[in-house]
Amino acid sequence: MAEIPAQVMATDLAVHLIRVLRQKYGPLMFHQSGGCCDGSSPMCFPRGELLVGDVDVQLGEVDGEPFYMSRSQFEYWKHTQLTLDVVPGRGGMFSLEGPEGFRFLIRSRVFTDAEIGDLRAAGRI
Predict the structure, then answer these.
(1) Tell me, what's the pLDDT at 14?
(2) Burial (CB count within 10 angstroms: exposed 0-12, middle 13-18, buried 19+), residue 19
(3) What domains can be seen in the chain, in order of their start residue?
(4) Edge-to-edge, what's the strand order for the sheet holding 56-62?
(5) Which candidate, 118, 107, 115, places its Cα nearest to that of 11?
(6) Which H, E and C letters describe the chain, residue by residue?
(7) Phi and psi for 124 in degrees, rounded to 5?
(8) Edge-to-edge strands of the sheet including 80-88?
(9) Is 49:70 a contact under the CB 8 Å cutoff?
């Protein structure tokens, strides 16, 4: 079987900000917002602050921190690789990066047919 492509990854800038936040707040977690309140943006929380359950899918980890999305939203995004990135600006009002002067955002690309086949074979989509 081919190597399974990552469903979520992070840029070097995002990893740097994750490490700054982890130093301040301890272990973290991410949840891709579905459009309520702060729009559709990746939200960063102290790990365990946001309860996840059967309605959520863990896409993977970014620098060792779990990254989740609601199962219903995942149905729309499952053919897409997400890349966590950082740009200047204010983060979501509930997300930890707000006071840092930066915000997380998602960049994406559609998986190739071969990658989708590998993900299906692995039971990931």
Answers:
(1) 98
(2) middle
(3) 8-120 (2.60.300)
(4) 42-46, 28-32, 65-70, 56-62
(5) 107
(6) CCCCCCCEEECHHHHHHHHHHHHHHCCEEEEECCCCCCCCCEEEEECCCCCCCCCEEEEEEECCEEEEEEHHHHHHHCCEEEEEEEEECCCCCCCCCHHHCEEEEEEEEECCHHHHHHHHHCCCC
(7) -90, -20
(8) 8-10, 80-88, 102-110
(9) no
| Structure confidence by residue, pLDDT tens digits, 20-60 | 999 999 999 999 977 655 456 899 999 999 999 999 999 99
State both tokens at 43: 């939200």
pLDDT at residue 98 in the model: 85
| 75 to 3, 16, 48, 57, 62: CA distances (angstroms) | 22, 30, 24, 10, 21
